[in-house]
Amino acid sequence: MLRTERLVLRPVRAGDADWIATEIARLEVQQWLTSPPHPYRLAHARDFVARFGSGPGTRVIDAGGTSCGVITIEAANSFADDRSEGWELGYWLRVDAWGRGLMTEAARAMLTDHRARHRATIHSGWITGNAGSARVLAKLGFLGPTETLRRHAHFRGGPVPVERVHLPADAPLP
């Protein structure tokens, strides 16, 4: 478990599947994600919890007792076959948690924790047009965009442009 000034980043538990399924299924959230199936159902959330719940790289973001989202630093190819073997930062927040700096705070804590165990470059990105994610990654010191890829987004039914950035292993965290 990780703690910040406002957050607790805790392991994913079986009981999280209900709220995860509800929040990812929201148009405002899922439109910016490439990995989740569409439509997103409770069975998908249960599969996610079973697959990633026990590892140190996946955490629920809890703000004042409310589960606000999920953040991961996992091997990129654990989410989709078309991804590299490097480390990938991924995240999402429920809509009512947007715009409060929670994701930047959570990601900084996850990156610090990950660096204590691994000295490696971390990759991330956003679907073109997602200004919120672009701001989060810029505040964390990610460099780029270095390239634009086309990735399949289930919600959109086909490939979308994804802006790719990276945080070198030796880059200081702001």
Automatic annotation (TrEMBL):
Domain named N-acetyltransferase: residues: 7-174
Top-level taxon: Bacteria
Kinase is among the record's keywords: no
Pfam families recorded: Acetyltransf_3
Keyword annotations: Acyltransferase, Transferase
PANTHER family: [RIBOSOMAL PROTEIN US5]-ALANINE N-ACETYLTRANSFERASE, GNAT FAMILY, PUTATIVE (AFU_ORTHOLOGUE AFUA_3G00765)-RELATED-RELATED
The name this protein goes by in its record: GNAT family N-acetyltransferase
Species: Ponticoccus litoralis
UniProt lineage: Bacteria, Pseudomonadati, Pseudomonadota, Alphaproteobacteria, Rhodobacterales
